[in-house]
Amino acid sequence: MIEPQTPQEWQEAIDTAEVLVRLDAARQYGLVTGGPAVNVSRCEELLRRGEALGYTPTADAVERIIPALVSFAWRCRVCGCTNERACPGGCHWVEPNLCSECAMKDNRRPLTCAGSVQRAHSQ
Ligand SMILES: [Zn+2]
Ligand SMILES: [Zn+2]
Predict the structure, then answer these.
(1) Nearest ligand by distance to the CA of 90
(2) HEC states along the chain?
């Protein structure tokens, strides 16, 4: 186990610890199922020591960190790609369970439809 060294590392560690403690609390209440195993006592230790050094969790820590934590379980509702198995050309999440590749294809759908209608008419 390594210790945070620089102020930046401390801030990152404190933010993550704060979010993980909250995530774990949410899981206790059944609000979240699954997800990463949280070493709560280690998180609390870091928070305590960070606080003693003058670090407090930043306000947007939850918004920043939760998406990264929950996206591991996402699966694209269109193509079924996951964090481990992205689309061939690479993709990222544009919203929960929808990847950038499929979001892009979705935007092109009206064009494709118009094209096939035209072909049907010319036959
Ligand atoms: Zn997809
Ligand atoms: Zn994808």
Answers:
(1) 2
(2) CCCCCCHHHHHHHHHHHHHHHHHHHHHHCCCCCCCCCCCHHHHHHHHHHHHHCCCCCCCCHHHHHHHHHHHHHCECCCCCCECCCCCCCCCCEEECCEEHHHHHHHHHHHHHHHHHHHHHHHC
**Cα-to-centroid distance, 88 and ligand 2 (Å):** 8
> What's the whole-number average pLDDT of the chain?
84
How close is the Cα of 70 to the center of ligand 2, in Å? 16
* pLDDT band at 118; cut points 50, 70, 90: very low
* Residue 3 CA to ligand 2 centre (angstroms): 36
